[in-house]
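During the reporting period the student researcher (J.K.) took over the structure-prediction task from the postdoctoral fellow and processed the backlog of single-chain submissions. One of the processed entries is reproduced below for the supervisory committee.
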Amino acid sequence: MYRNYYQLNDIDFSSITTNSMFTFFMIALLVIFIIWLIVTIIKIVALAKIFKKAGRPAWTAIIPFYSDYVLLELTGYNWYYIFAYLAAFISVPLSFTPFIGSFLSYAIGLIAFLVNFAIKIKFAKSFKQSAGFAIGLVFIPVVFLPIMAFKNDIKYVGKSVNGDIDFNDLF
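J.K. obtained the following structure tokens:
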């Protein structure tokens, strides 16, 4: 008589294994969601405080792309640089197309990263911070945004750019 590999003494272990794996993955997803929620709340509170320091309403930090627009305004960049933030959404579907789409996806992602990097450097300079602080804003914003927000000696000094990105005067 043929016995199922997962059955031993008339106990079906396949459902137990499947259920425990499902439970593990659901708990892992819940933990990831809670971490994401905490990081998002920290970033929104920090941006609200930063916007308040710069004389803008704190509620603008809650609205997703409008907060990026306000960040561009504080830095002095033109409004159309908001498309650099939207480029990430464009590059994801492109990555699923063969060869040329994946190449374009990487190129758009790299351009969006470089523009975001330039924006964060000038944003830090608008608050009299160094390029090293701006690198922290790019790579670890959950740490450096609250530092910028809650440190009393960091003040908004005004726009650091007149419209467009000048990579020659980046640092």
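The committee noted the following: The longest helix spans residues 13-53.
J.K. will present the remaining backlog at the next meeting.
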